[in-house]
UniProtKB/TrEMBL annotation:
The lineage of its organism: Bacteria, Bacillati, Actinomycetota, Actinomycetes, Glycomycetales. Residues 1-33 have a biased composition (Basic and acidic residues). Belongs to the SIMIBI class G3E GTPase family. ArgK/MeaB subfamily. NCBIfam families: lao. This is LAO/AO transport system kinase. One of its GO terms (molecular function) is kinase activity. Residues 1-37 are annotated as: Disordered. Signal peptide: none annotated. It comes from Glycomyces sambucus. It comes from the Bacteria. It holds the Pfam family MeaB. Keywords: Chaperone, GTP-binding, Hydrolase, Kinase, Nucleotide-binding, Transferase.
Amino acid sequence: MATGERTLDDRAADGGGRHDRAPSGGAPEDRTRRGTTLQDSALEDTVAAARKGDRRATARLLTVLENDTPAAPALAGLVKGGEAQVVGITGSPGVGKSTLVSALIGAWRAQGLRVGVLAVDPSSPFSGGAILGDRVRMADHALDPGVYIRSIATRGHLGGLAATTGAGVRLLEGLGFDVVIVETVGVGQAEVEIASLADTTLLLLAPGMGDGIQAVKAGVVEIADVYVVNKADRPGADGTVRDLKAMMSLVRREPGEWRQPVCTTVASEAKGVDELIAAIGKHHDWLAEGDRLADQRRRRAAAEIRARVDAALRERFKVTEALAEAVASGETDVASAARSVLGDTG
């Protein structure tokens, strides 16, 4: 690709998703783009401040990871370890994911647990930024020092997550958070990566949205660890519960395998949240038996490696506007264009 030639990816500028706002004081928030670096001593100070609950410090560290700055490897070495419970939340748009996350935060905070949230938002194809809808719905916890909420732009990554979500989870674990919640984009049937990232994956459904049929199509019988029928005060909730239980009855399970419970909630009123947290706890206890939890963490690491490789390939092999125009006008075909991007003319 010729130097200076414009690519379609240039329209989606780096830096989307950094929407953290913190009270005055503490470590200054890093607002620079790629190339941001921190000296070793400054990095250690920032990590120490983040462990004490400094939101600006936590924001700065996450920015280092998201932008893959030169300080990222050193940061990863400073925040090793952590035993946070990682909970993934997925489901179609409109089922109340962010509202349920807010209710879960409140319940876990009542238990004295420190909660981190990574809310993955779709990127604008033009600006590269992420919308703030998730953060708006969680505004009740904005001033709680035991809660940290971060919106992350997908930056074109598929599967409902961002390429750096796994690194963000590791960071929050290493900073001492007890629970890390990952809320996916909410695009529907393609959101399967969350199952490899989270210890426990919740699938949210709502009455009257045809979600039972969508669940069959997406194969989420295998993906979800806990089903949640939200907005259970609406007509049709009992029917959705019956549909889910009927689907699960068709799945053969060996003795000792996990059987997904079906929980009902009204997240806007925090109804059913305690029962849901109990179900999440039971699944975590089941994972802790034998080598299941360690195996899940290995799968998470493998998924994180694959995501970073995919992101690097997208960055390395870019599609120019001229090449896209050539395919659109019929001058060349898609396969030939792809080979030219990869440098393969054979």
